[in-house]
């Protein structure tokens, strides 16, 4: 997480702002203050806009997955994550990792049927790419979803 955070903020124009956010995030992570971390990242995007160019797309997906999906139960944060992923998927609807994140958010917010459909789509794409590691994860997620088991633990 530290390397990713540093890379994200290296790309931002204001180093002092980036350092402040990074330092605050690390202090919050140490305290396991995930609601504050989630809110901080969403507020940063709301103030500075989405970066959907180049690496920004990958970093946005990673933030939504690692921070919102894995660590938030707040429905408004999850809905915001869905909004971000919808924007990403419009630019590349065949990116299975992004579809996986989208499916996880749908499932977490209670939209199980849609989540399974999207997870199946991610699985089909991963299978076509012979990405065995992702195929295994997506199959496990589908089974968990069908059994109402959280996929974020």
Task: List the topology elements.
Elements (H helix, E strand, L loop, with lengths): L1 H9 L4 H17 L2 H15 L6 H17 L3 H17 L4 H13 L3 H17 L3 H15 L7
Helix pairs in contact: 1-2, 2-3, 3-4, 4-5, 4-6, 5-6, 6-7, 6-8, 7-8
Account of the 3D structure:
InterPro entries: TPR-like_helical_dom_sf. Keywords: Signal. Helices cover 78% and strands 0% of the residues. It has 153 residues and is mostly helical. Helix 6 packs antiparallel against helix 7 (112-128). Mean pLDDT is 87; it is low at 1-11 and 13-21.
Rg, Å, rounded: 16 Å
Quaternary state reads single chain
The mean pLDDT is 87
Number of helices: 8
Beginning-to-end CA distance, first to last residue? 17 Å
How many DSSP-defined strands? 0
Beta-strand percentage range: under 5%
The dominant shape is globular
The unreliable regions are: 1-11, 13-21
> Which bin fits the share of residues in helices?
over 70%
Q: What's the story with the biggest beta sheet?
A: none
Question: Could you give the order of the helices and strands?
Answer: HHHHHHHH
Structural class: mainly alpha
């Amino acid at each position: 997480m530290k390397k990713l955070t540093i890379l994200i903020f290296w790309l931002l124009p204001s180093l002092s702002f980036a350092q402040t956010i990074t330092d605050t995030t690390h202090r919050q992570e140490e305290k396991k203050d995930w609601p504050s971390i989630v809110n901080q990242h969403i507020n940063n995007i709301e103030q500075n806009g989405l970066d959907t160019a180049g690496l920004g797309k990958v970093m946005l997906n990673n933030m939504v997955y690692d921070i919102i999906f894995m660590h938030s139960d707040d429905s408004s944060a999850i809905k915001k994550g869905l909004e971000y992923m919808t924007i990403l998927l419009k630019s590349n609807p065949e990116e299975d990792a992004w579809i996986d994140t989208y499916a996880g958010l749908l499932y977490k917010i209670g939209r199980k049927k849609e989540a399974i459909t999207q997870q199946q789509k991610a699985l089909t794409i991963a299978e076509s790419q012979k990405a065995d590691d992702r195929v295994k994860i997506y199959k496990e997620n589908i089974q968990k979803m069908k059994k109402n088991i959280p996929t974020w633990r």
